[in-house]
RNA sequence: GGGCCUGUAGCUCAAUGGUCAGAGCAGAGCGCUCAUAACGCUUUGGUUGGGGGUUCAAGUCCCUCCGGGCCUACCA
């Protein structure tokens, strides 16, 4: 039994996330976490909302709410949606928590002690009317290169030239439109991660088993141009974690907060502490996941994220972790594996929050239950390349895989059995239902059942290998093939024919098919948790173990076991409905 | 501009440098009648973007051209 710590990239607090966000971190992390738990490993699965930064402040202002209230409300919205998609976080925390305040300040103090913090005075654009400093991309103006009137301070999206905000012609605030701007001097803390460049490169270079996407992005940042640059880790904002050096004030930094990208990854740790607090456990309970010296040396730490998050997780956060252990006194856990994803597009273009283009988590659940989405998203997860959502593809995936292959299998088995044999599994019930040998006596297998068991053993081994390697597309493909085995078996065994001449044989086939349903429920649970429960409920079971011993698993349900014919597991999406949805979600 | 990824059947994707490049969907034919007009079997379909090179052997490695995508550090 292994111990595995799993974190999903933190969704930003600013509004409901779309399916592209979901598929790139939370959902694959959930499938992995569910699988490892099913295999009996000790898993801690952590996520949280990322609540600080300029966009949160602006969104709160737009909503007419204090930022703290806005974030609390949106946290609940995101929590409910996570529950709606059956994301099995052990804790869903908040980067604005007290725990994160303390830990972030603690890490900053340690980094300062390590000589890795530098105070730098810089000049930034300040909007007098907005009363705030403006990040580069919150400044708009005319592009000096191409004349595009709505160029942003960091880059002109028309001619793609990179800009400095002071280059813009007639610059204005993107927030208020005010042209009442000035350049002001402001002092910030920088993390001197360039000093850790060689250490980071050696660490990354050893990760030969990581996705290319993870390592190639990291290596580019390490070695491109002048190499890894130091980063500002503070901002002039009201909402955030006040800059302190550990528990002490930081002279000269009054009124400033830490940059969201400094405190967000630390929230992985803080959220684990929040989990311990929420479950009434002492600090040791979370430290044994994060501190090598306090019990975490056997923990494997796996992070899931979209490619946009890779630089922060391969460089900045590790620099924080490594730097904080400068004297060997605080060996925090470094990530062991980074599973990164490309983007999911919507019908050939990007999902867009601002344009209302694509499907958002709340809308998705209003259309169909979560398992439909989980299945399509995971069987099309953008592992190797960007992938593309179309309603046509979604319809085909749902109708063929879920309705025709899995749903129909459960339907044909339970309906046949109920019509011919009644409400219990046919055959003579064993006299001692708990005795495995006794069950075996009443479950004599013909060569057909043996062949199916052998086929399944191979396929389940492949399925497990895929899941362990986090090859989720391949795992989904293999799971589907496992479902198909059931239909092949029924077709060749043909209990509807056997029953005319050999009722005992028909009964044995039926029992075997019911055991396949039970097996499929267990195997499918990482992808389809709600459906798995419904399948088991039809068999009168609350839960079932992973089929470590496949032969025993296929004999688990004896003659005499009661069952119900469940309602249709998956309704099909018809062409009319699909057309409706296409229109509704076409965007602006 | 620079860097990285990518191009394989009508579509979505697989293939440690090594049998005849494989699956699913779509198409065609046959079978079955338990089932959500579902299922099963068989089958059509490829000059692996173009060109050159290395090798006994290239979808895979190298060069080049063409197409698509992402990143490029103060959004997070």
Topology summary:
Layout: E1 3-8, H1 19-38, E2 42-49, H2 54-63, H3 67-84, E3 91-94, H4 98-113, E4 117-127, E5 132-133, E6 139-142, E7 151-152, E8 169-173, E9 181-191, H5 197-205, H6 212-223, E10 231-232, E11 234-235, E12 244-245, E13 248-249, E14 257-258, H7 260-278, H8 283-290, E15 299-306, H9 310-324, E16 337-341, E17 344-346, H10 361-367, H11 370-379, E18 387-389, H12 391-421, H13 436-441, H14 447-468, H15 472-493, H16 495-501, H17 503-524, H18 529-538, H19 550-553, H20 575-584
Parallel strand pairs: 1-2, 1-15, 2-3, 15-16, 17-18
Antiparallel strand pairs: 4-5, 4-9, 6-7, 6-8, 9-10, 11-14, 12-13
Helix pairs in contact: 2-3, 4-7, 4-9, 5-6, 6-9, 7-8, 7-9, 11-12, 12-15, 12-17, 14-15, 15-17, 16-17, 17-18
The structure holds one RNA strand of 76 nucleotides.
């Amino acid at each position: 039994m292994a111990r595995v710590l799993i974190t999903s990239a933190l969704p930003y607090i600013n509004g409901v996330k779309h399916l592209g966000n979901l598929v790139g971190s939370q959902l694959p992390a959930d499938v992995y976490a569910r699988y490892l738990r099913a295999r009996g490993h000790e898993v801690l699965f952590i996520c949280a909302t990322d609540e600080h930064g300029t966009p949160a402040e602006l969104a709160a202002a737009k909503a007419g709410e204090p930022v703290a209230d806005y974030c609390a409300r949106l946290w609940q919205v995101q929590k409910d949606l996570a529950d709606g998609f059956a994301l099995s976080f052990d804790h869903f925390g908040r980067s604005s928590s007290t725990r994160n305040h303390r830990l972030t300040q603690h890490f900053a103090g340690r980094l300062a002690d390590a000589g890795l913090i530098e105070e730098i005075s810089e000049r930034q654009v300040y909007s007098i009317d907005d009363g705030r400093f403006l990040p580069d991309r919150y400044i708009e103006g005319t592009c000096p290169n191409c004349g595009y009137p709505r160029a942003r301070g960091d880059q002109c999206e028309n001619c793609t030239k990179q800009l400095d905000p002071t280059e813009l012609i007639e610059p204005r605030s993107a927030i208020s439109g005010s042209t009442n701007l000035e350049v002001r001097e402001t002092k910030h803390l920088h993390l001197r991660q360039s000093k850790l460049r060689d250490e980071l490169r050696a660490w990354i270079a050893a990760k030969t088993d990581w996705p290319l996407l993870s390592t190639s992005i990291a290596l580019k940042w390490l070695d491109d141009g002048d190499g890894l640059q130091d980063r500002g880790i503070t901002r002039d904002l009201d909402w955030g974690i006040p800059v302190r050096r550990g528990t002490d004030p930081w002279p000269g930094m009054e009124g400033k907060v830490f940059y969201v990208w400094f405190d967000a990854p630390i929230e992985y740790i803080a959220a684990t502490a929040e989990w311990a607090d929420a479950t009434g456990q002492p600090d040791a309970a979370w430290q044994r996941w994060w501190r090598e010296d306090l019990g975490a040396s056997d923990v494997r730490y796996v992070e899931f994220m979209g490619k946009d998050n890779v630089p922060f997780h391969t460089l900045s956060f590790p620099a924080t972790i490594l730097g904080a252990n400068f004297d060997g006194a605080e060996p925090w856990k470094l990530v062991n594996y980074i599973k990164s994803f490309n983007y999911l597009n919507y019908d050939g273009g990007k999902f867009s929050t601002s344009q209302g283009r694509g499907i958002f988590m709340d809308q998705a659940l209003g259309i169909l239950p979560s398992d439909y989405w989980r299945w399509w998203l995971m069987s099309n997860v953008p592992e190797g390349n960007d992938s593309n959502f179309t309603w046509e593809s979604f319809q085909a995936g749902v109708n063929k895989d879920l309705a025709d292959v899995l749903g129909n299998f459960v339907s044909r088995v339970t309906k046949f059995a109920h019509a011919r044999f009644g409400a219990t599994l046919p055959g003579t019930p064993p006299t001692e239902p708990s005795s495995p040998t006794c069950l075996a006596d009443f479950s004599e297998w013909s060569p057909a059942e043996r062949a199916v068991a052998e086929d399944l053993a191979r396929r389940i081994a492949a399925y497990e290998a895929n899941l362990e390697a986090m090859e989720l597309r391949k795992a989904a493909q293999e799971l589907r093939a496992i479902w198909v085995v059931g239909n092949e078996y029924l077709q060749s065994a043909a209990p509807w024919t056997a029953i005319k001449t050999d009722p005992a044989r028909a009964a044995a086939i039926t029992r075997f098919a019911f055991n396949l349903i039970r097996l499929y429920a267990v195997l499918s649970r990482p992808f389809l948790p709600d459906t798995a429960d419904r399948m088991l409920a039809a068999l009168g079971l609350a839960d079932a173990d992973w089929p470590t011993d496949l032969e025993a698993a296929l004999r688990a349900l004896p003659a005499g076991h009661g069952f119900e014919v469940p309602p249709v597991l998956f309704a099909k999406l018809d062409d009319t409905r699909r057309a409706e949805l296409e229109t509704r979600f076409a965007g602006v």
